[in-house]
Structures are given as structure tokens and as C-alpha cells.
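Marked as duplicate of an earlier ticket. Keeping the data here for the record.
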Amino acid sequence: MEPNATKFDLIILGASGFTGKYVLKEALKFLNTSSSPLTSIAIAGRSPTKLAQTLQWASKPNPPPSLPILHADTTDPSSLRSLCSQTHLILNCVGPFRHHGEPVVAACTDTGCDYLDICGEPEFMEKTEASYHQRAVETGSLVVSACGFDSVPAELGLLFNSVQWVGEAVVNRVEAYVGLESEKRMVGNFATYESAVLGVANASNLHKFRRSRPRRPRPQIPGPSPTKGDTIEHQKKIGLWAVVLPSADASVVRRTLSTLTENPHGLPGSDESPEMVVKREAFWSSVKPAHFGVKIGSKSLLGILRIIMVGIFIGLFGNTSFGRWLLLKFPSLFSLGWFRKNGPAEEEVESASFKMWFVGRGFSNESLASQGNTKPDMEIITRITGPEIGYVTTPIIIVQCALILLSQRKNLPKGGVYPPGIVFGHTDLQQRLQQNGISFDVISKSTISS
């Protein structure tokens, strides 16, 4: 493309993949519609034939629009740089990201192209920040990972719960509980399962990497540090049994809170209006940081034991090459039917949904929090609900993030590698998600009896 040629608004890389095709389907809803900034889309990947088939599928029941189909391969840096030179924004749907993500980020940061992805892999995200943040700042490339179910609901959910603590009330800890529901069989994407298996294999490398990094400032959170708690927890108020979920959410939230500690009024936009400066500073001043954790929940104890069993399989076999081969060769067996290589059927996607509860505990008055081992006396429960997490909620989220980036670019950081919360927290992302089927609700505010 010539230097003065018009660029695409966005290119979806990996559009023919399991999640990529649903991202394309969601993006097409906003192409050339009233009030949408999205006027041009291209799709890219290794196989033009598969991309053409995907476009036909994503467009039904309407005829497919005439979208450019571009060749790109994550093993070919020149193809990625060519891709970035033709667009303002890349939506990267090619995973696992620890294998395929870095070349795309490198091309974007070299060319100044903006980048969003649906990654849920802490190792990739943290190494990307360490390696490419400064380059992204220099070139004006805004790089934001985890713009899907990992980890926007966790980020916005924490912020939504946090701002309910008004006046003298302060939050100490927010625990998120993820509940998945379906009228049919619950089936996940093989790439998600593969990422979990590889995450176990690389866990020691991630810990070593984190120890090698400079320690970032941590927010000052009123009150004592929370205790570890029971391995299996029964949350009667929300009707769930729960166990710790080793997802990316907690690490992504910690990065946002660290960035907020360094920038108490949030990150300034590249060319903000005075009104936007006031709005941004007012929002972030209302946020009260908290300790944060995530658990996976089930309505039955048997469901939790099944989750634990899958975790044991991945933990035991994920540490050896032969064990990983077995896990990846027979995903349905070792996940007890939750994951399979061909992914869920369309009717299984349509029947699934999620509820994510945020149980915040804190103090009705900040002075109570400073009294040593005082237990929290206040609880606020909020909730996010929405459709199936991988193929419906994730596309909704990344497309809405893209629309904000395209329409409100001057209100976002000029460049850098950041988690989604600190970039989109003060925008209208929550309102946009609510308009597209993802609800935010305050469930209860109550006093905790001692």
C-alpha cells in the first residue's frame, strides 16, 4: 500500500480460527452502520480459501460483503509488517499467543499500528510489556491484550464494585466467582485448553521472569491482608461452591492497579479535551483499590470435584513432554468432556451463558480499617451476566474495545503496552457492553455481623 493510500479501520488476523470467525461475525454488525466508526474491514490469515469460507459463514443469512482477504503468517515477519502498514488497528485472534503473538506485536510496535487481542496467557502479556512497552511509546502503538472474557469482565467488574464504596466506606478485598451455565453440553475451545496445558509447562519460567523484573509499586489497601481461606468454599449468598481459578484475571488486574498507583488520575489521552481530562480524573479518583482473586464456581459440590479432577490431570501431566502430548492428543478424555478439538457446535454456543459475581468486603469507615486486625463490617455484592464466554462474550468485548479505539483514539494513551482496565476503564465500555447483552448489576449492600 502506498504511503498516502487510505488504510483499513481494522484487520482481523486469524479470522478463520475458532474464535476469529465469531469476532468477524460480530464486527460485521457494525460495518457502515449509523454512528459506527467502522467503515472498512479486511481479514487476514494463511489460507485465503478458509478466510473466504469464514466470510460466507459470518455473513449469513445475508450475502457476504466484499472484504479484502490478505495473506499473513506469524512465521513471516515481512507479511505482518505489510499487514500493519495497511491498517490503523490489528485484532489478533491467533493463539496460543506464546507461540504466535510476539511477531504480531513486534510488527505493530515497529510500524505504530494499534493492537488488540483476546489473549488469556499471563506469560505472554507480561513479557510483551517488558519487551515492547518502550518501543510502543516511541512509535505511538497502543498494545492491549486480554480484550475478551479474559480479562475485561474481571477488570470492569472490580472497578464497578469498587466505585460502589462511597463516602467513608472503603473496600479491602473483592473476590470474583465465575459460574458457567448451559441448557446443553458445555464445550470449550481447544486453544483455551492448550493454553492451560502450556501454562502449566511454563509456570516455573513465568515465576522466574517475575522475580527478575523490577518490583512495581502496589496500591495502599486499607485493612489487613486477607487470609488464604478454604480450598473449597461454599458461598451461600450466591449459591455456589467454588475453588481458586488459575486464570489470567488476577495478574491482569494487579497490572492495572499498579499502573493506577503510578498514575492516580489514570493515563492521559494523546490529545484529550479539557472536558475529557476532568471526566478521566473524576473516574479514577472514585476507584478504591482492593485485593482481588478469582474462583470458578458450581451449583453443586460434585461439579467442583469435577473441576478439581481436571486441574489435577493438567497439573500432573503438564510438566512432562509425554504428559503434554497425552493431554493435547486426548483433550476430551482428560478434560472430562469439557474441551474437544473441533470446539462446540453452534447450538451449544447459543445455549451457554455466564454469571460472574463480585463479593466485596470492607469497612463502613476508613478509621475502622486502621485498627489492626479489625474484621470487615460491610459487604457489597455485584454481578456481571452475559452470553457464552468464548465465542459470544469475547467477540462482543473485543469489537466494542475496537470501536472505542477507532472513535475515541485521542482520549486513549498515545502508545504503550497496557492491560485493558487502565486503558478503557474511564471510557463508555461498560455502557456499550450493557447495550450488547452483558449486564452489570448491584445485588446487595449489607452489614457483616461479627
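See parent ticket for discussion. The mean pLDDT is 92.
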